[in-house]
Amino acid sequence: MKESDLFEPVKNFLEAGGYKVRAEVKNCDITATKGDELIIIELKLSANLQLFIQATDRQRITDSVYVAIPKPSIRSKKHWKGIRHILRRLELGLIFVDVDNPVNPVEIVFHPIQFQRKKISKRRKAILKEVENRSQNLNVGGSNKKKIITAYRENAIQIAVYLKEIGATTPKKLREYDSGKKTLSILYSNFYGWFQRVDHGFYDITVKGKQELKKFPGLVIKYKKYLNDIRKNNE
Questions:
Q1: Does the predicted model carry a pTM greater than 0.90?
Q2: Integer Cα distance of 154 and 148 in angstroms
Q3: Which of 16-30, 84-98, 110-124, 165-179 has the least mean pLDDT?
Q4: Residue 226: which region, alpha, beta or left (left: phi > 0; alpha: psi -120 to 50)?
Q5: Torsion sign across C-alpha atoms 192, 193, 197, 202
Q6: Has residue 125 been placed in a domain?
């Protein structure tokens, strides 16, 4: 398929709506006019950076700018959710063209309207809470395929260090050393396989847990010191 294959269906659709359609006017793929109204449509075979650059440049001419691309498959629905969000933020309209559909080849997905930013408060709170609960900046931005030190993982490391130092004990005793409200949940769910219940209400660190602690020497040193300081203060 070529970009030019998209032209005829879009042209016919606009002309059926009473627009005068012209192609390649001052580098614009399609211009459509009706009275004083001016619409510009950019044709591309995929939504890419070049399309966004071209389309937003056309917004210097008119607010009514659309991008027209081949209708995506159902399999790419998840990918297109993000693309559609970007287009809405850029206040661009979106047109799908199905050249294999002789009846309704053109679908106006949405028109270019002013974008209303809607912040998701739950996600904002989750980010702020995660930042607050991470004691150090232990990750590198942009890293791929590397384990992220989340607040949850750091809390699990803290509990593992305590168990390694003081031996099998209860969640209540661990909380006395400021291990956090999630202590019982972390021990019970045992997400990383670091813990084991050795008696009713008593937990200990596993061999795997001891091995895993070697990967976090900085945090091990920190929480050993933290534990020792609490012990001294309680004496």
A1: no
A2: 10
A3: 110-124
A4: alpha
A5: negative
A6: no
Q: Kind of pairing, strands 65-70 and 93-97?
A: parallel
Q: What is the CATH number of the domain that holds 48?
A: 3.40.1350.10
125: its two tokens: 């709170």
Domain that holds residue 84: 3-110
Q: Where are the beta strands (DSSP E) in the chain?
A: 20-25, 28-34, 37-43, 65-70, 93-97, 106-110, 195-199, 202-205
Token pair for residue 190? 């045992």
Instruction: Please report whether residue 119 resides in a domain.
Output: no
Confidence band, pLDDT 50/70/90 cuts, at residue 76: low
- 162-167: average pLDDT: 95
Query: In this predicted model, what pLDDT tens digit does every residue of 107-136 receive, in sequence order?
Result: 999 998 876 666 667 777 777 777 777 777
